[in-house]
Design a protein that fits this description.
The chain has about 110 residues and is mainly beta. It has a domain of about 70 residues: Immunoglobulin-like (Sandwich). Helix content is about 10%, strand content about 40%. The strands form 2 sheets. It has a 4-stranded antiparallel beta sheet with strand order 4-3-6-7, with no helix packed on it. A 3-stranded antiparallel beta sheet has the order 1-2-5, with no helix packed on it.
């Protein structure tokens, strides 16, 4: 009985390194575009008396969804536009987060208003 048990254990340990395991043999997918091409937000920082900022990208006529959040994560303002100007006259001085979505790609930028 001990011989059979020893033989079975020997076979298991012998075959263990030969096993391929459970890893898939498929290569990883091609990386998708993660950034909006040529995205620029200016002026940043903004002087307190300025009422607009400009958001441009390489695709100038694309539809852009812009959401403005405060540093606590509360959404302050949201808009959808093809124009490059964004009215910020209702914002007080402080630090804000812009979430800009163009198509299926989103980017975040920090906006400082002095």
């Amino acid at each position: 009985m001990k011989n059979i048990y020893f033989l079975l254990m020997f076979i298991v340990f012998l075959c263990l390194p030969i096993q391929n395991g459970f890893a898939q043999g498929n290569p990883p997918p091609e990386p998708t575009q993660l950034n909006i091409e040529g995205l620029s937000v200016y002026p940043n920082p903004v002087d307190g008396n300025a009422s607009t900022i400009y958001i441009i990208s390489k695709d100038k006529i694309a539809l852009k969804k812009v959401a403005i959040y405060n540093v606590l994560g509360k959404q302050i303002k949201a808009t959808v536009s093809t124009r490059k100007e964004l009215d910020i006259s209702s914002l007080n001085s402080g630090v804000y987060i812009l979430k800009i979505t163009q198509g299926s790609i989103s980017e975040t930028r920090k906006l400082v208003i002095r």
